[in-house]
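Rather than argue in generalities, we have chosen a single entry, letters for residues, whole numbers for local backbone shapes, without further comment.
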Amino acid sequence: MRAVYGDSRLTHASGDLADKIPTEILHMNSQSAKTFRFKTTPATMTTTTAPESNWGPEECRHELLNNYNLSDKKVTPEWVSNHYRWIVWKLAAMVRSFPDLLTLKDGAGGWEKYWSGSAVVDQMLYRYQKEYCDARRSCLNLIIEGDRAPDSLLVLCVADVFVNGESVLENGIDVTEVAPENLGLELTDGWYSLKTQIDPVLCRALVSGTLRIGCKLMIYGAQVNGETGSRSALEAGDRLGLKISANGTRLAKWDAKLGYQARPIPFQVSIARVSKEGGSIPMIDAVVMRVYPMLFMENKMILSWAENEVQSRKHQELFAKECERLISKHQKSSNQDLDGSEIAAEARETIPERNVQRKLVVRICDVPPTGHGNETCGTALLTLWNPDASMLEMLREGRRVKVCIVFFFSL
């Protein structure tokens, strides 16, 4: 979109759009698009209708089945209604954003070509080709049907906001006057949508207006609420949804492509901007300030290196005494020497191996700007459980590291 129209969309809001395009386009949203009906019919319509007749999802399906011989088992009323909603909303947003450029491109009233039943039919045919002929499903379709996880990098659009399950667009609710914990989103990839649970940080962003309907979100580490793979994308309804968190969510560019991203690299979050209520962190780019001595945890008790060595020697002594006892017992009862592995296995039933977890704590800070010290950077304690040799080699003081999928715990 940016390659075709440039950044003209950003300056067009200053004009008086009411003098250029109809009010119905200015006020179109994802809910009103469901029931919107065009006042003219496509030129290819074979039904005998007057030019001013209403044209909506039913007429669209009739057009697809009769004029293009598509399968009625695939082009169901539910399939058409779903895509009709997203196509109409997309076309309205396109005309709203670029009315002048569309007119220059196609002549006087050029944007009207994009706001018609014919344009909807063209989009329907494109989606039918992609979804059924090419077998290329959208990201939410893949997630709903259980064929791909949602935790990779993806971009979705905010289609609606829900307050206690009620649509803000349908009921005219002012989100600034409701409790943040009662808010939820409907996110779409332009083909299908899912209701989405959000954390308190994103709820506050909705109330403040930072997050709003129509904006695109870059999401990493999303989770599924419900069972995937048991129903199609059109049958998901309220039984399946997403869950996103603030640390793994950022506003995306207006022209960002919806769906899974070609380069699924987690985006960076600075330590200073991490929210304790915002869930997991996609990636931190940091400098190791200090590496603390290795700690050990056994039975929920934290041990130092010296204390762990003492416990290890005591355990070895107990195990050796148990082996000696078993050897003496078997020699007295059978006068036979048993294999050492058999004695050790029997001794382990009485003296099991220690269950010790190694814990490494490292103090890290954001990479400081060029020419500045780390006094202006956010710092945090990074805890690693059972680090291997490569991690220990990498985590040296003064080194720069990138850590992915970090979970926040408040001390």
